[in-house]
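Sample log: Pentapeptide repeat protein.
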Amino acid sequence: MADWEFIVSEVFGGPGEDGERLIWEKVTQALKGTGEGIACLNYTYFNRDRQLRYQPDVLLVNRDQGITVIEVKSFAIDQLVEIRANQWEMQNFYTRYLYPFRQGENQLRQILRSCDRRKALRGRMPGRVLVALPCVTRDEWQARGFDVDHPTCPPLIFGDELGRRSLRDALEYRALPIERGEQPLNLSNTDWRELRHVIVGGSRPVVPVPPPSIQSRSDVLSTLQTFIGEFDQQQAKIGIQIPPGPQRIRGIAGSGKTLLLCQKAARMHLQHPDWDIALVFFTRSLYQLVPEILRTWLHEWSNGELEPDFVNGKLKVLHAWGARDRAGLYSLLRNQAGGSVLTSAPVTGSIPERLAANCKRLLENHPIQPTFDAILIDEGQDLLTRETLQIEDKQAIYWLAWQALRPVNPHSDIRRLIWAYDEAQSLDSLKVPSYREVFGTELGALLSGQRTGGSYPGGIQKSEVMKRCYRTPGPILVAAHALGMGLLRPTGMLSGFTTQQDWQQMGYEVEGDFRRSHQPIKLHRPPENSPNPVPQLWQQPLLEFEAYSDRAIQFNAIAKRLRHHIDEEGLQPSRDLLVIVLGGAETEESSQRHSASFELQRQFAQTLRSHGIDYYLPGASTTNQPTTGMNQNVDTFWMSGAITVSRIHRAKGHEAKFVYILGLESVAQQEDNLLLRNQLFVALTRSQAWVHLSGIKDAHTYSDYLLYDEVRRVIASGTTLRFTYRKPSQRSLVDEDEIEPLVAVN
């Protein structure tokens, strides 16, 4: 049965907040189990003039009764001097005059206007206002000669009337109707989702039952389009919350982490336009995607009035490193510190290692100027490096971001650093960005809440886990986990979660005991945690695998399939279709494999042209051109009318309806290489609907690699995996922030 959702948007610590928190606690106790609704503390609404922001203390949105605003005034009775209609004269208070009912009414009307912009809700929403005085009793009020029954007295709830029954009665019978709306209010499921969207920015539609007209992939995509981009309750809640300190968001691939961080950054920017905010990511080609998502949120909440400047404005979009033509987090802070700090030989290694080494040098040689009020980091798993590149047992990139932040208030050194990650998607590191890994053992334990509690005052969590995957269909996601971790390898898994709790947090149902080796394990992914509707809409396999005898046969066969998708099935070359090439890594040590994957990308692109299909290589200046140092457009991943052919590192963070994956033989030749398996995981989870996975057979034996048999077993398993547990030979994915510290007993 649906119940109320309780959302604390922000905790300020200012005057009157104790009273607001008391009212909030009593309201949550009174409303639990009373129907379906959304309750928000310190919810902020933005009207058409972006200079005005309305913030009801407590906002209640009930499916059956409409919208109620509770305006909380936390003063003692002796601070109230006189009431003249809507004006209350105060003494020894932070302001001389209060207008509580008018304030609540203005806030309510702004929200009702937003409802009226939606046809399904226009003129239907009842709206009421109630004024709460948590520090005043009814007897104190009447003893001062104030009459609760006077026509000019607003509807009041006093501090001695906060029991569950009395508070429910006040909300139902005492709150004053400002708009009567539809009586009784009868919202369909679709109407309720519209109302939720007005308040918290989205709700997931019900997974559709496949209509009989579904005959082609384009039919599936038409239905899928109504599903993509919506938020579930947890996402919406996290997205509008502004924590008063660090926050870790651990999310399974496709759970909406990037979308959520963009929502959170946009809300911070509108709610606090004076803040300096940075949204940081690792994959530079996300410069095309992230601003698009941010603009969507900003336009929606400002009703199209706000045109952001992500380069010079208060809300900045930054690549982690930066380049000559565009500032990144590191280069921005380096320049503020006085220029280059590369005083020794250039650093070698992977891109994250080179970045960490430079961050470490910067921290060791220059004081960092606090520049931002909030930093949000996406793809946090890609910013971790080995211990030798850490600084004082802290990850250098994260510690640089921490030093670049202003404290949240003058009385604390706590700072607002928010990072999102999926440890299974790392392409260059086998570490997990827990609080301990990022900030070191001591500070990590303090910030994570192991010593102080796992939530901030008001209930905002210090760590969130997102287990529902909306992007990738269940069978493909399960295959990605199985192949990425090697769960069905004959000799045992290479990597993976080793507790039931961790698997459950990733959305799996678990049977079996991980405490001992050689125990049978069963993992099942239920539809509610993979609600993508494509498995219901498309009755044929979503994930196909084929091993070709040679490269020419493979390339021509795939080119013909892509031509069929475009000409016969109505798929668009750009964004519906994506080709990903596996193999290689972004390191100098792996230059040979890197060159092989680059050559594979180039050869397949030429095959597409021979079939009359336009291609785009990320970073090229236009379609049907190679990438060179002279014509790079490094921030671009898609080009209209062309199929993007990308190596894996550039594909991270992007998604398409149908993903073709080439180069599986490069993984098969080193099937115990976990970083290569991680590439396969990332490639599979770029898909919103279908995947075609292919490789060529062993050139020496003309037979399949052992990995190919593993792939076939995984595909046949569907959404249920059965295997014999052996301790991972390379990496155990354990959430260190959830481990209770050991206590010595004498």
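Observation: Residues 204-209, 586-593, 739-746 have pLDDT under 50 and may be disordered.
Observation: The chain has three domains: 4-200, 233-466, 474-732.
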